[in-house]
Amino acid sequence: MCVVLYTGVLFLEFAPVVGHAAWLENRLPFLARLLQRGHLLSPVLAVAGLALSLLHQSSLGATYAVLPFRPLWGNPGTAVQFLSHAVAAGPALTILATLAAGRALRREVVPHSTLLRLGRFVGIAIVIYLYVRLWDMFAMSYTHVPGRAEGLALVTAGPLALSFWVGEIVIGALLPALLLLTPRLRERTWALFLACAGAVFGLIMARWDVNLSTQLLRVGWIPGQPVGPLAAYRPTWVEWVTTLAIVAYGLLGFTWSLHLFPVFALSGDDERRAMPRRAAAGTIEQRPFAETS
Length: 293
Description:
single chain; about 290 residues; 2 domains
């Protein structure tokens, strides 16, 4: 329910951007004016989006908390981990999208100082998540839940050790925190991009470890045997190609929308510099929905 409602909020938030597209204003002016009125709902949508995103991110982790039949699930701490990691990776993905948009449009779409302040927030959030994650993982050794110690060994020293230590901890947390919390490094665009990419990659690895750690470790039904035999799985080329196709379609839609809709407003100077290039190229000029001086 949270995911469906939050998706609806995202559609309503993006509606004014579509309404300010020049091609829609020329062809369907009534629909364009109707979508532009969505600006009036911005404060309400912002509060609703914040509440729903907090709920659905924590509920994703809570899903594993109510499944005690797996060794590393049935853990209430997963709700806090999923939420804290989303708080860090969400703004990191926003910075990545902004930098990619600036590269595609060949201009600065958001002031660099704003990205630096947001990057510092991401670094602090990653440190908080890292503390929560490590505390929860290594506190498992004090429990007596069947299979919990074996599951911890599977993640930290078994088949998932590489994705946990290198993917989730080093690349996904330590490296981004170092780059984002060091002012001299954070001011460099390449470091900001690398740190945010690492934070997003770390979230993917964390979700991978939470899911696969219990899929590989099965509860044993023989008395005296806490866990069953280790399962093995390797994706086929069809699964790899399908996954890459989904990512490719997402990137195509993102870059396509940058050129079709006025997602980022032009300043007055940028608009005047862009007009001769557009006229020479014969493209349709799009009026920005919010101009800044």
